[in-house]
Structure to design on (291 residues):
């Protein structure tokens, strides 16, 4: 049976006015910028239409690259998800906890659900991480009134990862009762959320944050909703190049941010924490409104 949330946290609604303009990162108007955000301030490249000044630390010298393939794109054709919207999976636990549900192909997805609200957030991890690695971010957003679902991906077969993300989106909409869904992924998880967005039924994905993507460039043009592409300036050239190409291929509204340091994937939250939270809050505030 579908479960519709009986409470909506007021904290998120109260904070919308500030989160949508944090560090000059408002998405209102669909601005397209490329910002080198470091301790010396923001630098906007000439391919943007407006200026931006998100700042953060630049001590990301210990960042690591999780993926080793030299492919920036693999030419995978995307097809729209035609899965019947079902309400399968375990019931959302009161107060949050672990859940599971199935992909369209029958694979079981393990997830952790935190928070309650009309706007849901799916977190997809990279190589060397699991769903628990996103819990610090999920807990903080849950406190602000978002329904957050972190999931484990099957990175042994990366062709399945978009299905895992799509299944998580369906779970949030059909079992938790969210009205809008935002996808957040890092490294291999970024590739997964981009491809999932491109395959999703129209009107089911409202925002996507791709952090350090290394593939899925060809999927960017089919993405829907608000799009945020982020990479560290000193990351491996493949990720820097792929992030920019993905941004250029995507339709508006979109944003491209280059942060200081060389951290990769989820490590960027450690080396550029303030900048990442400003960007993420701006995206969520714009997409989710006062829910």
């Amino acid at each position: 049976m579908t479960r519709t949330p009986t409470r909506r946290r007021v904290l998120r609604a109260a904070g919308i006015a500030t989160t949508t303009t944090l560090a000059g990162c408002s998405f209102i108007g669909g601005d397209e910028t490329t910002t080198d955000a470091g301790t010396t301030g923001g630098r906007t490249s000439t391919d943007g239409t407006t200026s931006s000044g998100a700042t953060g630390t630049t001590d990301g010298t210990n960042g690591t690259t999780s993926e080793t393939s030299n492919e920036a794109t693999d030419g995978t054709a995307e097809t729209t998800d035609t899965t019947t919207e079902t309400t399968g999976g375990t019931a959302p636990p009161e107060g949050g906890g672990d859940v599971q549900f199935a992909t369209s192909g029958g694979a079981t997805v393990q997830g952790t659900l935190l928070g309650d609200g009309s706007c849901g957030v799916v977190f997809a991890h990279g190589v060397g991480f699991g769903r628990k690695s996103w819990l610090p971010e999920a807990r903080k957003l849950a406190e602000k009134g978002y329904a957050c679902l972190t999931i484990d991906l099957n990175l042994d077969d990366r062709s399945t990862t978009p299905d895992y993300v799509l299944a998580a989106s369906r779970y949030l909409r059909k079992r938790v009762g969210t009205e809008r869904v935002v996808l957040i992924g890092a490294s291999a998880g970024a590739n997964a959320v981009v491809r999932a967005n491109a395959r999703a039924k129209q009107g089911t994905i409202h925002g996507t944050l791709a952090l350090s993507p290394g593939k899925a460039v060809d999927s960017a043009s089919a993405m829907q909703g608000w799009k945020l592409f982020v990479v560290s300036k000193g990351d491996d050239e493949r990720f820097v190049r792929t992030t920019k190409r993905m941004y250029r291929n995507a339709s508006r509204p979109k944003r491209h941010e280059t942060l200081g340091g060389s951290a990769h994937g989820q490590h960027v939250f450690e080396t550029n924490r303030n900048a990442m939270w400003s960007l993420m809050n701006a995206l969520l505030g714009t997409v989710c409104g006062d829910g």
The longest helix spans residues 161-176. Confidence is low (pLDDT under 50) at residues 1-25, 28-32, 37-76.
